[in-house]
Amino acid sequence: MNLLSHKKIVIISMLFTLVLFAVVMFVVNPAIDGKNGLDVIAMQLAFSKEVGEKIVVSWDVTVFYKWIVFDYFYAFAYGLFFASLISWLEKKKGVAYSVFPYIAVAAALFDWMENSLELWFLHDPAAFSSTLFFLHSCLAALKWLALPVVLGRIVHLYRHR
Predict the structure, then answer these.
(1) From the centroid of its chain, how far is CA 78?
(2) What share of the chain is helix, strand, coil (3-state, %, to 5)?
(3) Helix/strand/coil for 97
(4) How far is 65 from 61, CA to CA, in rounded Å?
(5) What's residue 55's pLDDT?
(6) Which of 82, 90, 117, 138 minimizes the number of CB atoms within 10 Å of its CB?
(7) Which pLDDT value is given to residue 141?
(8) Cα distances (angstroms) measured from residue 54 to each of 51, 57, 60, 126, 142
(9) What is the pLDDT of residue 78?
(10) N-to-C CA span, the chain
(11) Residue 1: band (very low, low, confident or very high) from pLDDT cuts 50, 70, 90
(12) What is the DSSP letter of 25?
């Protein structure tokens, strides 16, 4: 992860992350669910195919297909940003490189897998496997659990002398 520990990578990836966060959370997700975008997160963590089907029944699936690419870019951006920020902070503070940048990358990969399963699910919800839907929610949960771990590491490094 020494390759990522450059300030320019941190700054550029932070800018992309902030822009894509705004696009995904305030444009894409609300366009998909026709409300405030929270149903997109609710579907990620539904764990039950039947609950997922009830959530997506009111969605504009064509909007999902059209805009999901932004969520893939967003996952890449935040994975790169968090991994590079941790690597840069560890280098700057003289702390041994850790597993935490890899956790940030893993969160992004979980997000990509989750998105891919959502694409498959929305193609034909009735035919989609309940087991795969459960796996999809497990991947989303792992992503959501990894992010506070990464943020905790960043806070810890900022406070480290």
Answers:
(1) 7
(2) 85, 0, 15
(3) coil
(4) 6
(5) 96
(6) 138
(7) 98
(8) 5, 5, 13, 11, 23
(9) 98
(10) 21
(11) low
(12) I
pLDDT in tens, 109-140: 999 999 999 999 999 999 999 999 999 999 99
Q: What are phi and psi of 24, to 5 degrees?
A: -70, -45
**Token pair belonging to 116:** 């891919």
How deeply is 118 buried, as exposed, middle or buried, from its count of CB atoms within 10 A (0-12, 13-18, 19+)?
buried
Alpha carbon distance 57, 42 (integer Å)? 13
Q: How far is it, in rounded angstroms, from Cα 95 to Cα 6? A: 15
Contact 157, 89 (CB under 8 A): yes
Average pLDDT value for residue range 32-52: 96
Specify the residue for token string 């696009």: 23
d(CA 58, CA 147): 29
List Cβ neighbours of 52 (8 Å cut-off, separation of 6 or more).
43, 46, 121, 125, 133
The first and second tokens of residue 126, run together, are 């009735």
> How far is 155 from 7, CA to CA, in rounded Å?
17
Pairwise pLDDT comparison (97 vs 14), residue with the higher score: 14
Structure tokens at 159: 């406070």
